[in-house]
Amino acid sequence: MSATASAAAAQPDPSSGSIDPLFHLVRILPFSFLRPPRLRLKLPTFTLPSAMTVYSLILLTYFMVVSGIVYDVIVEPRHRIHKDRYTGAVRPVVFLPGRVNGQYIIEGLSSGFMFVLGGIGIVLLDLALDKNRAKSVKVSYASAGIASVVISYVMSMLFLRIKIPGYLR
């Protein structure tokens, strides 16, 4: 007899599991007269979401990331009010002046909205290049896209100049 055959004979059968006769009796006896039911379960079918749903979720995620939602949750920035010393009028301060790496909640949301508006403008410009659309629709997409990108750029630069006075001058 070879060495591998003697080693295989020394190993117990893995299907037996135990040498206890009571274990074998409990394992075999109930299934001699009990039958498992035939379950006719249908697996749930999941349909893929539409392309617009996926695009909306990605756009919402992008908005939350560029708005600094995580920063706002962790730091919990307080809002400030500014009281004019001559007139006594009170107005809220929207931008945290002088700090590039800090923000108020409204500042982050408005900047994030401008970035998303610019991204939507680029998507509209891409839709305007479709050859299968009517000319009036293409012109509408192109004009809305250009307006969105220009408004986004101008407002973002305005926000940056408010935040850092004298920037790019």
UniProtKB/TrEMBL annotation:
Pfam families: OST3_OST6. One of its GO terms (cellular component) is oligosaccharyltransferase complex. It comes from the Eukaryota. The chain crosses the membrane at residues 54-75, 109-129, 141-160. The keyword Transmembrane applies. It is a multi-pass membrane protein. Its main location: membrane. The keyword Transmembrane applies. Keywords: Membrane, Transmembrane, Transmembrane helix. It is found in: Membrane. PANTHER family: OLIGOSACCHARYLTRANSFERASE COMPLEX SUBUNIT OSTC (PTHR13160:SF4). Belongs to the OSTC family. This is Oligosaccharyltransferase complex subunit OSTC. It comes from Sesamum radiatum (Black benniseed).
